[in-house]
Write a structure and sequence with these properties.
Number of domains of chain B: 1
Order of helices and strands of chain B: HHHHEHHHHHHHHHHHHHEH
CATH topology of the largest domain in chain C: Immunoglobulin-like
CATH class of chain B: Mainly Alpha
CATH topology of chain B: Cytochrome C Oxidase, Chain A
CATH architecture of the largest domain in chain C: Sandwich
Number of helices of chain B: 18
Radius of gyration of chain C: 20 Å
Number of strands of chain C: 10
Radius of gyration of chain B: 24 Å
CATH superfamily of chain B: Cytochrome c oxidase-like, subunit I domain
Largest interface: B-C, 91 and 79 residues
Number of helices of chain C: 1
Oligomer: heterotrimer
Distance between the termini of chain B: 77 Å
Chains: A mainly alpha (74), B mainly alpha (583), C alpha+beta (171)
Strand content of chain C: 25-35%
CATH architecture of chain B: Up-down Bundle
CATH class of the largest domain in chain C: Mainly Beta
């Protein structure tokens, strides 16, 4: 991540577990490089978020706002 | 939490710096405690559940809640975290640690002055008060020590930034060809944004409000000072958010067992914040008279583009966690979610903070939407929104991050992981309840910043009654307070857990490292210069128009010190009104 | 610069979303005709509000066939007219109402609760907003900006009455 010559950083990816982890937390089972990893789950989640944003925006703008009383026209 | 590592911890390697970080976090948490208590008093008072104060004192409580949490808690946590991040990622001490102590002292003194001015508002016998709320709009006038305290505090933050830039320059001399380590990159870009942003409030306080509160000038222009406030008032929200982003980008993937998906995009995101955070402040003034619609439209388009870095962050951070989940054996389109370390309070806290931030992002999009602002401006919707952003995305991430960072600063374990886990979940639940109710009440027209739940007319509630919403706010606020108490007591007990070794943590390199990005991203001078140009373009004309209409100091504006006098004015106005009616 | 194809897709969609938002708001301004309060109301010296031609005697005034001007002075902690001591603001239904609101002291807010009529009231400035009344009814008016320790007492009433009941004065 940050820098390549910093001594505190390991260039290997086998990092130690988090200090805040629960005891007995499963360790990393396999190494996934950039090439072999496609964030499919992330893409799916973010597309759902996109759909929610669009639907909520249309509702808020056209129903709640423009459908509200006393629209300011000047 | 008995995880052992063979790395030396941060306090092993940098004991003096760790002390600075610990002290900064401690100030932050004391303020969190006081601020949360004020929050509880408010939540119960304005919902009519429990009234232990006069409604007139509600505004003292509200001022303390806003200033202590949104300014002192957030920024003290920021300087602590950033001191850690710069030291760790450059692997280097400050050039002169005495300077580091100096800014920490400045900031503390400033906070105490402003804090005293606010809290003395509770004691009628002392003629000091600052019931002016977080926004301190003139002509409401606070005691001079409030403004002086703010000024000293902000100068302290400027010195902190200078300290980090100095450390970076010293590092640069020894490493002329290295890319800036990501955490330091984030610190430096944040501070460039902060220098640009605080110009507004520095001018507002030093040129106008402080001399005016001392009686050196007679009058200040309410619209001008308010516009200067929002010049600072929007970018400050990114000053709260960027340390949370630093934790999401650099710490969260590590905790999840993965690696940051893209270092180059993280850099692009922080540069977008440098460029776009400030020329948007007028979106807080969409319904202000005295500012032309065209200026508001420009602020709106800039604000909308400011969504981009946060939307990009959502993808990069979630992809980094998914990477961790898949490395830990997670499979399927959504099945990997179950492979995440949900029993780790640092992870769960940050993940839940991110989830509520996604919701807060939506209400922020509505706030950004110029004309739709008529629907929500200054209603309860707005605090509903920022309790999801600063109140959760930032505050909950800070608390969760503390569970990970604190052992490295003290060589002591967190007292109880299960309590920590319950604490972050309780914050999530309490905030979801409270914030949702505030949003809905806002749509019915219930105003923010008022002590009274009931006006003489009824708000036109469509679904769910106002009473139910009030109850949800009271219950949510109570859960949030309990969560804060759990956090603080867990941390207090952690001061007494036995010292041991084995708390060192490394941060794994990004999947796509800085070598994948153009070096121009690291050109701080260039981005600072463009940021200044954008601010000048966005603000020169509106400020010029206000000054040419009203002059620098306004016309015939009387100060309204927040002491006893308004009471007389109020009685006077009412009597005058009565007299007019009778006549 | 190396960017994953999914991220490129998301970048494109994020930009689309942003352009969509800006498009909606532009439609609101140009198509639906929603105008922001701006600098058209001009300036008034707060100390001289009582001597001002319009704000000196604030209230409802018929200015056209179905058009009314309403001048309102906000001060700690009343709206004149609107608050109880001054009487509710009364306008007929199916009319165009131009509100002109200014402050005689500190910053206030003026919001007709549960509707879109919502503006800041800043000393020195005149907020001008125009609405069309389409239904009869009573609306609460709130000051939505903190203006001092009696802020929560600052409220008023707007009555939209049938044309034949309108008698041209505030009550």
């Amino acid at each position: 991540m940050s820098g390549t010559t910093v001594p505190a950083e390991s260039n290997e990816t086998e990092a130690e577990p988090s200090v805040s982890a629960a005891t007995g937390q499963e360790e990393i089972q396999r190494e996934l490089s950039h090439e072999e990893y496609d964030p499919k789950g992330t893409l799916a989640l973010i597309l759902i978020y996109f759909a929610i944003l669009m639907a909520m925006w249309v509702f808020m703008y056209f129903v709640e706002f423009l459908g509200n009383e006393l629209v300011v026209v000047g | 939490m008995s995880t052992q590592t063979d790395q030396p911890s941060f306090v092993d390697r940098y004991p003096e710096e760790a002390a600075v970080v610990r002290r900064s976090l401690l100030v932050a948490f004391v303020m969190l405690g006081i601020g949360a208590l004020m929050g509880l008093v408010q939540a119960l008072h304005r919902t009519n559940v429990l009234r232990i104060i006069d409604s007139a004192d509600y505004y003292t409580v509200l001022t303390a809640h806003g200033v202590f949490l949104a300014i002192v808690f957030t920024i003290f946590f920021l300087v602590g975290l950033y001191q850690w991040a710069v030291t760790r990622s450059l692997d280097r001490s400050p050039v002169d640690i005495r300077f580091t102590h100096a800014w920490a002292t400045m900031m503390t003194v400033g906070s105490l002055m402003a804090g005293a001015a606010i809290l003395l508002g509770f004691i009628d016998e002392v003629p000091v008060s600052a019931d002016v709320l977080f926004t301190f709009y003139a002509p409401l006038q606070a005691h001079p020590i409030f403004y002086a305290g703010l000024a000293i505090f902000i100068v302290g933050t400027w010195m902190a930034g200078a300290d980090w830039f100095r450390t970076w320059l010293a590092w640069r001399k020894d490493n002329p060809d290295e890319r800036i380590p990501l955490q330091t990159f984030m610190v430096l870009t944040t501070m460039i944004m902060w220098y640009v942003a605080t110009l507004g409030v520095a001018v507002e306080v030093l040129v106008f409000l402080l001399p005016w509160s001392l009686g050196l000038i007679d009058s200040v222009d309410p619209l001008l000072t308010r516009t200067l406030f929002w010049f600072f008032g929007h970018p400050v929200v990114y000053f709260w958010l960027m340390p949370a982003y630093l934790l999401w980008y650099t710490v969260m993937p590590k905790i999840a067992g993965g690696r940051l998906f893209s270092d180059p995009l993280a850099r692009v995101v922080f540069i977008l914040f440098v460029l776009l955070s400030t020329p948007v402040g007028i979106h807080h003034q969409y319904v202000d008279p005295g500012i032309a619609q065209g200026f508001k439209f420009i602020a709106m388009t800039n604000t909308m583009f400011l969504l981009l870095p946060s939307l990009l962050t959502a993808f990069t951070v979630v992809a980094s966690i998914e990477h961790g989940a898949r490395q830990r054996g997670g499979t399927g389109l959504f099945g990997w979610l179950t492979a995440l370390p949900w029993r780790d309070p640092a992870f769960t806290g940050m993940a839940l903070a991110g989830l509520l931030f996604a919701a807060g992002g939506f209400s922020g999009m509505v706030n950004a939407g110029m004309n739709i602002n008529y629907l929500v401006h200054n209603t309860l919707w707005v605090p509903g929104h920022f309790h999801l952003t600063v109140g959760t995305a930032v505050a909950l991430t800070f608390m969760a991050g503390t569970y990970w960072l604190w052992p490295q600063l003290t060589n002591r374990e967190i007292y109880s992981r299960p309590i920590a886990l319950a604490q972050v979940v309780m914050w999530f639940g309490g905030m979801a309840l409270m914030s949702n109710a505030m949003h809905v009440a806002g749509l019915f027209g219930v105003p923010r910043r008022t002590a009274e739940p009931q006006y003489s007319f009824d708000f036109p509630a469509l679904f769910g009654t106002i009473g139910e919403l009030r109850l949800q706010i009271a219950v949510g606020g109570t859960l949030l307070f309990i969560s804060t108490v759990l956090f603080l007591s867990n941390l207090a007990f952690s001061l007494g857990t036995p010292k041991r070794e084995g708390f060192g943590q490394t941060i794994p390199p990004a999947l796509s490292g800085p070598e994948d990005s153009p070096a121009v991203l690291d050109n701080m001078k260039l981005w600072a210069a463009i940021a200044v140009v954008l601010v000048v373009l966005a603000y020169a004309l509106p400020l010029g128009a206000i000054i040419s209409d009203n002059g620098l100091f306004g016309v015939g504006i009387e100060p309204y010190p927040m002491l006893v006098r308004p009471l007389f004015d109020w009685a006077g106005a009412t009597l005058a009104g009565l007299a007019e009616v009778i006549a | 610069m190396h960017i994953h194809s999914y991220e490129k897709l998301w970048l494109g969609m994020a930009l689309l979303l942003i352009v969509g938002f800006i498009g909606t708001i532009t439609y609101g301004t140009v198509g639906a005709g929603v105008q922001m309060v701006d600098d058209s109301g001009g300036n008034v010296e707060p100390g001289n509000v009582s001597e001002h031609e319009e704000f000196g005697e604030p209230g409802v005034e018929k200015v056209g066939e179905n058009e009314y001007d309403v001048h309102v002075v906000a001060r700690q902690f009343v709206f004149n007219p609107g608050s109880e001591v001054y009487g509710a603001i009364e306008v007929p239904v199916n009319s165009t109402v131009n509100f002109y609101v200014t402050s005689a002291d500190v910053i206030h807010g003026f919001s007709i609760a549960g509707t879109n009529a919502n503006t800041m009231v800043i000393p020195g400035e005149v907020a001008e907003i125009t609405i069309e009344t389409e239904e009869t009814g009573e609306y609460g008016i709130v000051c939505h900006e903190y203006c001092g320790e009696g802020h929560h007492n600052m409220e008023g009433l707007l009555r939209v009455v049938p044309e034949d009941e309108y008698n041209g004065s505030t009550q």
